[in-house]
Amino acid sequence: MELLNIKNLDLAGKKVFMRCDFNVPMDEFGNISDDRRIRSAIATINYCLDQDCAVILASHLGRPKGVVDEKYSLAPVARRLHQLLKREVVLTSDVVGEDAINKANTLKEREVLLLENLRYEAGETKNDVELSKKLASMAEFFINDAFGVSHRAHSSVEGITHFFDNEHKAAGFLLQREIQFFGKLIKSPVRPFAAIVGGSKVSGKLEALINLLPKVDKILIGGGMAFTFLKQMGYDIGASLVEDDLLEDAQHVMDEAKKLGVKFYLPIDVIAADKFAEDAVSKIVTAQEIPDGWMGLDIGPATVRLYREALNDVQTVLWNGPMGVYEMDKFARGSNKIAHFVADSYATTVVGGGDTADLVQRIGVDEEMTFISTGGGASLELLEGKVLPGVESLIVHH
Ligand code: AMP
Description:
The N and C termini lie close together (about 10 Å). It contains 13 helices and 15 strands. The protein has two domains: about 5-175, Phosphoglycerate kinase, N-terminal domain (Rossmann fold, 3-Layer(aba) Sandwich); about 180-385, Phosphoglycerate kinase, N-terminal domain (Rossmann fold), CATH 3.40.50.1260. Strands 3-4-2-1-5-6 form a six-stranded parallel beta sheet. A six-stranded parallel beta sheet has the order 9-8-7-13-14-15, sandwiched between helices. A three-stranded antiparallel beta sheet has the order 11-10-12. A hairpin with an 8-residue loop joins β10 and β11 (about 280-285). It is α/β, with parallel strands linked by helices. Adenosine monophosphate binds near residues 201, 324 and 327. Adenosine monophosphate binds near residues 224 and 321.
């Protein structure tokens, strides 16, 4: 797939609107815990600045749901950008209000403006045309470098592309690299190919799981999503996270795996806790013996051993979603051990998703991975063979 290339645009001295993905994870003190997504956008921003552009950056952060909430302000992102770019970054106080429009209008060459959180505007996630139009009116060129949200048809991602012709829009370097990497990965993965899928919910990853099945040789499940499968298999899962309305779908995934000959792994033991907290009482129990009222918050040591064994002969690993509540030290062990094992392997190792990237970064094995994608959901949809809405109108049709 060939995308409209930023290098073919006549950008010199022009005003550029760049959609970035600065949706970075924060720690309990409100500090950015992994700035990979910000660092990953620097190449494209610098390219524009080197062309003497006036650069307007825009992103969402978290889910403020259409209302202004200080907690989701992009101020920490503006400060980090300032550090990384070594130049002033002005943050607007609104998205498309008076302040943003004024500052965008008066922005000069080689200056950088950052709009406040796009999701302060309720229209953003609804792909509202009026919002797209207002955002588009700020600049002469549109660059999408926000791989992590390219699977969303949102105003600043999809809607906005319709206000620019092919000579005035393109994919940034980050988006290009991600699309190319996953394109190659789907076309000819070196086998055996394993997917490690974790995280909180089956719901968000159900379709991805179904679509991954025909492509992979093994699937290893971890995280909260494992319990919906375990429950469906007849285990007592205590107070663990479960999606009761998806039990049948879970069965369907397991049936499909069997049909396709994909080896499907579930945790055989877990770290169970009496509450969802760092100071919970916890113990290692087999999947058969989760006590009533206790919840599984991490995979146990036997599962770690089993998964290492299963990953031993694998040549390609795709990892999306933590094995447990890795934000709490007590329940981070499973994820950490898997991370070290994957990092040490000679396989092609691909990590997708903010949380998974954050966790490999926290334990310092990020450099050992072959590729860390800035988009979890987006990379899964690419692997499903979907054309991402934010990428669609940037494709070059010959
Ligand atoms: P997701 O956003 O679906 O990728 O899920 C990531 C989140 O899943 C992380 O914040 C983890 O804390 C959480 N998580 C992982 N394992 C569990 C579990 N066993 N119970 C509850 N939450 C979990």
